[in-house]
Predict the 3D structure of the following.
Amino acid sequence: MRYIPHTEEDIRLMLAEIGVQNIDTLFESIPDSLKLGDNLLALPESLSESDLTKYLKQLQKNNTTVESHSIFLGAGAYRHFSPVLIDHLISRGEFATSYTPYQPEVSQGTLQAIYEFQTMICLLTGMEIANASMYDGASALAEAVMMSNRINRRMDFLVSRGVHPEYQKVIETYTKGSNFRVKEIPFDEKGRTDLSSIAENLTENTSAVVLQSPNFLGTVEEYDQLKEKLAENGTLLIVVVAEALSLGILESPGKHGADIVVGEGQSLGLPVSYGGPYVGFFATQKNYLRQMPGRLAGETLDQNGKRAYVLTLSTREQHIRRERATSNICTNQGLCALATAIFMSTLGKQGFREIAVLNLRKASYLKNRLANVQNFKIRFSSNIFNEFVLECPRPVEEVLNYLKKEGIIGGYALESYYPDLKNCMLICVTELNSRKEMDILIEKLQAL
């Protein structure tokens, strides 16, 4: 909105209305020593709008951007292509300004969009029901831990060390002050969760086991054998997916025995955008429906027998029973959820899979090439999706600074969260990384 100043007549009328002679009278309470007075600020000469636009664009060139650098950084926030129609559609006033659809009779469009989002999340995760979205992947995981406790009333949780460290911090925040006990399960020499350690630490008070796949190290977990043992013990399996696009090629967690599947939907049409806003997804089995947090859109028939959508089972939620609510998720990430639904609808099953395969192929190409670069080493040999750990001959920060000078944003330094992975960085490759960019990265590392 352009700035339109008040006219002299506007000012005169306003002052007359409040009974003041001049503007200076309004500031009499401020000591003269604090007033600017006649000493003008040393401001540069004013610019026209067109000149100011040119100036700001010139300043913008000093920034490090996706246009100026090749990027191989992921670690929970992934750079993927987003069709232009997503921004166009979510900018429509009906979506951009809508609030939680408490009145279904005037919110059918919003409710249908939520319902379709839920349906697509069920298809991706292999689960029976999904909610209307959560704040992000981390809060979705923490809510899953809380839900597990509501289901079996147990207090112990086994969390894989391969779960995103920041997600683990959010679990810690959510459970602080409770009697929950969280034990970290190590990963093995292949970068996968040590399943034998889970078996050793499993007790009758273990509420849930938490795994991430692909995990924070980029490794695809293999946890089929857990299903029977956990079921016998009455322990739930929570699987978190930080890179949702991986579900386009990997079998759904539901097929591998997961009881609750949560994750981050940022990969599905949302920009990296300095870490947010993102959208969490949450799916589970029907028999746990009443313990599930968040909004839930359902399909029904109106009085004329026509299909209609509503917020269903609302007695679970904080706007009905605040003290006993399953969560305090209120106006959720509805617009972000809509963006992901449009993304998935635009690509379709085949397109979704094709992009996932492209990520896998490009990451595998770079991984195999870097394995042959002298003094560098691929840290883990397990299957990956679009990330892997590269061990460097020098401190990672030194390597990253070198690459940045060469126009490359390298991977994520793992030592801050994993002291035993000193000189290791997490490399990410998506469909937006060209073969040329990867070859230049290889060339620069060879020259290091």
Remarks:
- The two ends are 50 Å apart (CA to CA).
- Residues 334-370 form the longest helix (37 residues).
